[in-house]
Prior knowledge:
Layout: E1 5-7, H1 9-16, E2 30-33, H2 34-47, H3 50-60, E3 64-65, H4 69-81, H5 89-101, E4 105-107, E5 118-120
Parallel strand pairs: 1-2, 1-4, 2-3, 4-5
Helix pairs in contact: 2-3, 4-5
Amino acid sequence: MDVKRCFDTYALMEIFDGNPKFEKYINSDFVITDLTLVEFYNVILKKYDERTAEYWFKKYMNYSVSVDKWVLKEAIKFKFEKRKTNISFFDAVGYVFSLSNNYPFVTGDKEFENLKGVEFKKK
Length: 123
């Protein structure tokens, strides 16, 4: 049985870019937060164009979930605790959401490399 994972924007971009190290995730059971979805949209919009961003937004829309206020609050606390790192609010939300749902958090962001519950993949 496949384990459901939570992807961050880093993981989505590596899948988008066709990185073979992320190929195993293409058909896996995954979830992303709504905040990750809009961050991904922003990255694609800046890097490519609105048409491409819209395509990928619609493609991942059904995998995205809302997070409750508790997760947002805990993400703020997590980001504050890690304030000497470069962890974004978007990633903090995804990480806290993952922990609260017992999903591995898939990322390649170096700030998460040795944290609990992280499935770390370098480029």
